[in-house]
Design a protein that fits this description.
Blueprint lengths: L8 E3 L2 H13 L4 E6 L5 H13 L2 E6 L19 H10 L4 E3 L30 H4 L3 H16 L3 E5 L3 H13 L5 E5 L19 H17 L5 H14 L3 E9 L14 E9 L2 E9 L1
Parallel strand pairs: 1-4, 2-3, 2-5, 3-4, 5-6
Antiparallel strand pairs: 7-8, 8-9
Helix pairs in contact: 5-6, 7-8
């Protein structure tokens, strides 16, 4: 267990971050990585606490990854709070923070050109968020692979709110023989049921209230057996509340493929919807 009084070491360059990790490994310490894009909320903090229970050294990365945003998306307004993040990380006894300025060569002034290597998990990245954000998992898989190579952890902790992301990264780690265990932790929710997300800060008070329809619809309709009827019922509730549905899908929780009966296997009901310009995702697992 990591002491609450540990002051995090802050690294901005890959080489110094890697050297720290290798020093810890020489001492026989187990290392956990918690990748984040900052603007930390209680959901992130729960992942860090879980990492502390699983490893002796906890590294938190803070980097808003540009390659998982399309040009029309919210990279420029994605919430940031560097000072607040550091206070939270210090209070939790995080050992190290990796906060690079950039992790992709731009071609200027690098003489060998811009970054051009990307990772795709070809099947798992296609459904759900992959339909409306085809660029997204290419960017996620690439940045996480880079973070694995830089921090060299024994395990990495992710939240199950981003369920498809979790499966994509577990598959990537397996297929590319990363010596990293990818661990998924439960969704953290606000008291009123809204799934915790940094993007919640971008919601107006009116749209935040409307966004409760996502978790409410998942709970209310989860017992419907027919996937089509379940999809329609959830989408109808969200639309009636003023949301714009991106997708509602009922899929096999292991491979995200469509199912004919929501009760015959572990099933995932996954939702993405817009409230104003803010896109939120949520899900619920049916065992």
């Amino acid at each position: 267990m990591v002491s609450d009084t540990v002051q995090p070491k802050v690294f901005t360059e890959p080489q110094s971050m890697r050297e720290f990790s290798r020093e810890q490994r020489k001492l026989g310490r187990r290392i956990a990585l918690v990748p984040t894009m900052g603007y930390l909320h209680q959901g992130h903090l729960s992942l860090i606490k879980a990492a502390r229970d699983l490893a002796e050294v906890v590294i938190v990365s803070v980097y808003v990854n540009p390659t998982q945003f399309a040009q029309h998306e919210d990279f420029g307004v994605y919430p940031r709070d560097e000072e607040g993040d550091m206070q939270k990380l210090t209070s939790l006894g995080v050992n190290a923070v990796f906060a690079p300025v950039r992790l992709y060569a731009s071609g200027m002034p690098e003489p060998k050109g811009a970054h051009e290597t990307f990772i795709q998990v070809e099947q798992l990245q296609q459904p759900l968020c992959g339909q409306s954000r085809p660029h997204f998992f290419r960017g996620v898989a690439t940045i996480v692979a880079k973070l694995f190579n830089i921090t060299e952890p024994d395990l990495a902790v992710f939240g199950r709110k981003d369920y498809q992301q979790l499966l994509v990264l577990q598959r990537m780690a397996r297929d590319l023989n990363f010596a990293v265990e990818v661990v998924g932790m439960p969704i953290m929710r606000e008291d009123d049921g809204l799934a915790m997300s940094s993007r919640n800060a971008l919601l107006s008070s009116e749209n935040r209230q409307k966004a409760l329809s996502i978790s409410q619809s998942l709970q209310a309709e989860r017992r419907i057996v027919s996937p089509k009827e379940l999809q329609d019922a959830v989408a109808s509730r969200i639309s009636a509340a003023g949301g714009r549905v991106d997708y509602v899908e009922v899929v096999d929780a292991s491979d995200l493929k469509e199912v004919e009966d929501a009760t015959k296997q572990p099933t995932l009901i996954a939702v993405a919807a817009f409230f104003g310009s803010v896109r939120l995702i949520d899900n619920i697992e049916i065992k």
